[in-house]
Automatic annotation (TrEMBL):
<feature type="domain" description="Lumazine-binding">
    <location>
        <begin position="1"/>
        <end position="98"/>
    </location>
</feature>
<feature type="repeat" description="Lumazine-binding">
    <location>
        <begin position="99"/>
        <end position="195"/>
    </location>
</feature>
<keyword id="KW-0686">Riboflavin biosynthesis</keyword>
<comment type="function">
    <text>Catalyzes the dismutation of two molecules of 6,7-dimethyl-8-ribityllumazine, resulting in the formation of riboflavin and 5-amino-6-(D-ribitylamino)uracil.</text>
</comment>
<dbReference type="InterPro" id="IPR001783">
    <property type="entry name" value="Lumazine-bd"/>
</dbReference>
<keyword id="KW-0808">Transferase</keyword>
<dbReference type="GO" id="GO:0004746">
    <property type="term" value="F:riboflavin synthase activity"/>
</dbReference>
<feature type="domain" description="Lumazine-binding">
    <location>
        <begin position="99"/>
        <end position="195"/>
    </location>
</feature>
<dbReference type="InterPro" id="IPR023366">
    <property type="entry name" value="ATP_synth_asu-like_sf"/>
</dbReference>
<protein>
    <recommendedName>
        <fullName>Riboflavin synthase</fullName>
        <ecNumber>2.5.1.9</ecNumber>
    </recommendedName>
</protein>
<comment type="pathway">
    <text>Cofactor biosynthesis; riboflavin biosynthesis; riboflavin from 2-hydroxy-3-oxobutyl phosphate and 5-amino-6-(D-ribitylamino)uracil: step 2/2.</text>
</comment>
<dbReference type="InterPro" id="IPR026017">
    <property type="entry name" value="Lumazine-bd_dom"/>
</dbReference>
<feature type="repeat" description="Lumazine-binding">
    <location>
        <begin position="1"/>
        <end position="98"/>
    </location>
</feature>
<dbReference type="Pfam" id="PF00677">
    <property type="entry name" value="Lum_binding"/>
</dbReference>
<dbReference type="InterPro" id="IPR017938">
    <property type="entry name" value="Riboflavin_synthase-like_b-brl"/>
</dbReference>
<keyword id="KW-0677">Repeat</keyword>
Amino acid sequence: MFTGIVTDIGKVLELEQQGDLRARIGTAYDVAGIDIGASIACDGVCLTVIALGRAPQNWFDVQISAESVSKTNIGAWSPGKRLNLERALKVGDELGGHIVSGHVDGVAEVVGIAPEGDSLRVTFRAPEPLARFIAPKGSVALNGTSLTVNEVNGCDFGINFIPHTQAVTTWNEVAVGQKINLEVDTMARYVARLREWE
């Protein structure tokens, strides 16, 4: 489990297609404190650490299944790509965002960007089957970042990125046309499922 509060910006160092895709991700995390088998959210995708190292910088390796590649934006990763990283929650950690599983529901697309004061208003288009789970003032996780929805219009929804969020995540690189990992709020998913049984 995660909170959607990004704690590092990592970088894809290497990609290798074996049976599954293997990625090496550079990080500022102290790898001495990461266990093999630990979960790290990489742009919102919960991935399992399979190897660790310190040269030429701290890094960890993950294996990514074809299923994960098909349901996320991982297929567009290339060496040098920067990633929002978050380590898994520990008992007693502050819940600063919202409960995030790291199980991406689908891929949204950036369809509009406009400055708004010191902030940046970004409009996303969700896949139609997921749009019903997105509500004004509700929560979503986009590329692993816990965010509050401002408005919803059909499949489109708007998010306001304050300067701090842009500074400590990869959201200062956002561009129209980008594919973004979308995880809808768990509560919204369960409420919708309960309504199906009414």
